[in-house]
């Protein structure tokens, strides 16, 4: 098994799937992933169609959720957090065949980002402004900078996912 360090974001999902397909054509079949690492089994080169879905807070039982994809010809490769990676030998197969389903995936991701972001925005808008000026030195100064940095990253990610959500919303109405 080999591993490669790669960094992909939810708004770069196409690039991530292209990377996995390219690796499969070279004989490295995607096995699982974790924090910025992708693990591959060395086998014969294949053409494999990969796709990912974000389950989020979906209340559907996992067995039923996976069965939906299996019935459509997709096999689960692995799960990382709320992300599920699937493969299909049909290169023309789509995980979703309508814009509403894709939009719903991004809606679940937005909800997740907003819930995760609440403590960050609390720090930024409530806690940090109430700190005394003496707290602007040492550890707390570093903590403030860290929170600002994370908030900027979070806001940027949320904005990019929201743009994808709007893109698929437009396609639904056309």
Strand adjacency order, main sheet: 1-3-2
Based on Cα principal axes, name the global outline.
globular
Question: Distance between the terminal alpha carbons, to the nearest Å?
Answer: 46 Å
Question: Biggest sheet: strands, sense, closure?
Answer: 3 strands, antiparallel
Order of secondary-structure elements: EHEEEHEEHH
Helix coverage percent of residues? Answer: 40-55%
Number of strands: 6
Number of domains: 2
Low-confidence stretches are none
The overall average pLDDT, rounded, is 87
Question: What features would you highlight for this structure?
Answer:
single chain; alpha+beta; 2 domains; globular
Walk me through this protein's architecture.
With 174 residues, the protein is of the alpha+beta class. The protein folds into two domains: 2-88, no CATH class; 99-173. Helix content is 51%, strand content 20%. The protein has helices at residues 13-25, 62-71, 99-127, 138-173; strands spanning 2-5, 28-34, 37-42, 49-54, 75-80, 83-88. It has a three-stranded antiparallel β-sheet with strand order 1-3-2. Helix 3 (99-127) runs antiparallel to helix 4. It is globular and about 60 Å long. It starts with a strand and ends with a helix.
